[in-house]
């Protein structure tokens, strides 16, 4: 079993109380039945999350909206499982949605997983969104250091020369300086 699925099912088993509905959704169930859970009224959050995750990793785009909502959830494990499923979904809207979430200043406290997803996707939206998010985190006393660090690391991983100016700015911030040096070494020099 995939490690992400194992962690998800353990967490949701506890959340659901191990009900018959939980056992049914973790068993051999068809994609149409999983999709119905996403739209049926009165479904608990754990059931919607499990259905969306299973559909997402199966490449069923009916899970897209539910997964994007979960990517922006206040609970980090939900965000992580949604990011995992979205990375495997193959929906062309995913990078745009992740970029919108990563750059939304009203939701910056929940931007860590969208940032990491953008790095994994390596989409055209990834570098501009990470640059924008990091630049906003370079204010004095910004409380979202983990988001800033994820942006620095991600920009290094992506290795795009457009990131040089913001990474050079990050050098002046002690909590980010070491990571910025590493990231800058990963960007090939232009000749």
Automatic annotation (TrEMBL):
<keyword id="KW-0456">Lyase</keyword>
<dbReference type="InterPro" id="IPR016024">
    <property type="entry name" value="ARM-type_fold"/>
</dbReference>
<dbReference type="InterPro" id="IPR011989">
    <property type="entry name" value="ARM-like"/>
</dbReference>
<dbReference type="GO" id="GO:0016829">
    <property type="term" value="F:lyase activity"/>
</dbReference>
<dbReference type="Pfam" id="PF03130">
    <property type="entry name" value="HEAT_PBS"/>
</dbReference>
<dbReference type="InterPro" id="IPR004155">
    <property type="entry name" value="PBS_lyase_HEAT"/>
</dbReference>
<protein>
    <submittedName>
        <fullName>Adenylosuccinate lyase</fullName>
        <ecNumber>4.3.2.2</ecNumber>
    </submittedName>
</protein>
């Amino acid at each position: 079993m995939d490690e992400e699925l194992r962690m998800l099912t353990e967490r949701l088993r506890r959340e659901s109380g191990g009900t018959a509905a939980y056992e049914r959704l973790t068993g051999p169930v068809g994609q149409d039945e999983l999709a119905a859970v996403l739209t049926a009224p009165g479904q608990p959050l754990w059931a919607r999350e499990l259905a969306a995750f299973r559909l997402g990793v199966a490449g069923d785009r009916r899970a897209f909206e539910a997964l994007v909502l979960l990517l922006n959830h206040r609970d980090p494990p939900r965000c992580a499982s949604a990011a995992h499923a979205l990375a495997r979904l193959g929906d062309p809207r995913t990078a745009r949605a992740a970029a919108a979430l990563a750059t939304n200043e009203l939701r910056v406290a929940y931007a860590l997983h969208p940032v990491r997803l953008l790095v994994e996707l390596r989409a055209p939206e990834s570098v501009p969104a990470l640059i924008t998010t990091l630049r906003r985190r370079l204010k004095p006393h910004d409380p979202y250091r983990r988001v800033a660090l994820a942006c620095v690391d991600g920009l290094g991983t992506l290795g795009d020369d457009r990131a040089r100016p913001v990474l050079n700015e990050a050098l002046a911030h002690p909590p980010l300086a070491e990571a910025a040096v590493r990231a800058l070494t990963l960007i090939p020099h232009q000749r």
